[in-house]
Amino acid sequence: MNHHQLYAAYKQLNIKAADLHHSAALLEWDQEVYMPPKSASFRAGQLATLASMAHELLTADAYGAQLQQLLASNQLSPDELANVQLSWYDYQKNCKLPSAFVQELSEQTSRSFHAWISARKANDFNLFAPELHKMVELKKQQADLYGFNHHPYNALLDDYEMGATVHMLDAIFLEVKKELNPILKSIYAAPQVNDAFLFQHFPKSKQWDFSIQVLTDMGYDFDAGRQDYSEHPFTTSFSPTDVRVTTRVSENDLSSLLWSSIHEGGHALYEQGLPQDQYGLPLGAAASLGVHESQSRLWENGIGRSLNFWQHYYPILQQQMAPALDAVSLLDFYKAINKVSPSFIRTEADEISYHFHVMIRYEIEKGLIDGSLSVAHVADVWNQNYQHYLGITPPNNLVGVLQDVHWSHGSFGYFPTYSLGSFYAAQFLNQALQTHPNLQSDIGHGNFTALLSWLRQQVHMHGRKFTSNQLCNNICGKNLDLGPFVKYIKQKYSAIYGLDSL
Ligand code: CO
């Protein structure tokens, strides 16, 4: 076979694996959105079948040999070479986990997840603890199987954020503490903003229609996607031409639906912007979870909670929700949607204290994986840290250590990407604003064309060609840097809370 034929065979195999993954994703989407409850156990089997078929394809010896042949060829284009190198990296990683271990991990995931559900129902962490302990032991084993430098957590991080390390995260969270703690303290000491009017009655259908309008304006293509309701909002993609979002609604809380839609819309724009001709290949996939979250957070917070954005949308919202917001000024509305106050639940946190929620989880995960913390002490450490950083102690584990699904799934190393995403988002938006001086006024007119095409060029079209760190350097000329985020926070919140000295 010449290198064209070899590459075509490689591409075909990856497309086949992607077809299996995306078929599974469609079943998962259905599970969250429509599936009748009695279908659960057969559905789990169907998903497992598809996953193991894809895993077999991508770990076959023949596939490894094919990749090596391609790597030895010096006739690949730069993009082809990038694909093959990334696939080789993935292949080697996949092969490090024996199939018996993969099976065990998948079964433990089911057990831990069900134990977590029961523990939540009974509000009893002890129902979850033994299964969490087993999961942690398996994750330690996984880190050993992968191999690592310096810290076993680095091996797990790599699954979500290639190249991220404990060394880098420790430095970032140290800065989070140093920079954001004093800001939070000043805000907590200032008179609180009033957000009571956000909790009036807002009809479901009106909230829905408004979110559809905003998504459409953002550039989300409804001919290549759709929005539905689910308990936990998410984005899923079956190809760049079918990327779906979900949202949730509360008729007594205006914040719930809209920012879920904008957040997921940011994720979805990334997926819709991935190159179609790279379907199934690394360059057709997102760079990392951190970069993914940078897209959702940029839209949700950088745009969707900005004064500029609401200059355009507030009169429209007022009219659609009339008379609920008639007596509320734009500025009061803007302050309300940016209210900062300590809270127990990460997903409901404001954009400053959010990072303490993440940091607390990161420190606990690191301790569990390196053995310095045992599952028996997790709930206490959790509660002590909430008291220490946010000044509140969870009244029960339901709003404390049992709130997130991640650990039951074995997703250790996932949480830090939420913070990385926010910090990348601030760096990227800062760069976009410097490159396009008219961007602010465009946003003030509900026109996001220039912003979206900048994001397409800078981030979306590259897929996994660059790691998050390389991408950040390409775009901003430097590594991950908390500076733009801190600057954005200081400017925004000193105005909102009337503080000169942030
Ligand atoms: Co997200």
Protein described:
- This protein has a three-stranded mixed beta sheet.
- It is globular and about 70 Å long.
- Helix content is 63%, strand content 3%.
- It is built from 21 helices and three strands.
- The model has no long low-confidence stretch (mean pLDDT 95).
- The protein is an all-alpha fold and 502 residues long.
- The longest helix has 31 residues.
- A hairpin with a 2-residue loop joins strand 2 and strand 3.
- Bound molecules: cobalt (II) ion (CO).
- The site of cobalt (II) ion has 4 residues, from helix 10 and helix 11.
Task: Please give a handful of descriptors for the protein shown.
three-stranded mixed sheet, 3 strands, 502 residues, 21 helices, mainly alpha, binds cobalt (II) ion
List the ions, cofactors and other small molecules found in this model. Answer: cobalt (II) ion
Please state the structural category: mainly alpha
Which oligomerization state do the chains in this entry correspond to? single chain
Provide the β-strand percentage band. under 5%
The helix fraction, in percent, is 55-70%
Envelope shape? globular
Mean pLDDT: 95
Biggest sheet character: 3 strands, mixed
Alpha plus pi helix count: 21
Using only C-alpha atoms, the radius of gyration works out to 23 Å
Compute the number of strand runs: 3
Spatial ordering of strands, largest sheet:
1-3-2
Amino- and carboxy-terminal Cα gap: 65 Å
Summed up:
With 502 residues, the chain is mainly α.
Set out the fold topology.
Blueprint: H1 3-33, H2 40-59, H3 61-72, H4 78-96, H5 99-122, H6 129-146, H7 152-157, H8 166-189, H9 204-218, E1 227-229, E2 235-239, E3 242-247, H10 254-272, H11 289-303, H12 307-320, H13 330-337, H14 354-370, H15 378-390, H16 406-409, H17 416-435, H18 439-443, H19 449-458, H20 468-476, H21 483-496
Parallel strand pairs: 1-3
Antiparallel strand pairs: 2-3
The protein binds cobalt (II) ion (CO).
Residues 263, 267, 293, 296 line the site of cobalt (II) ion.
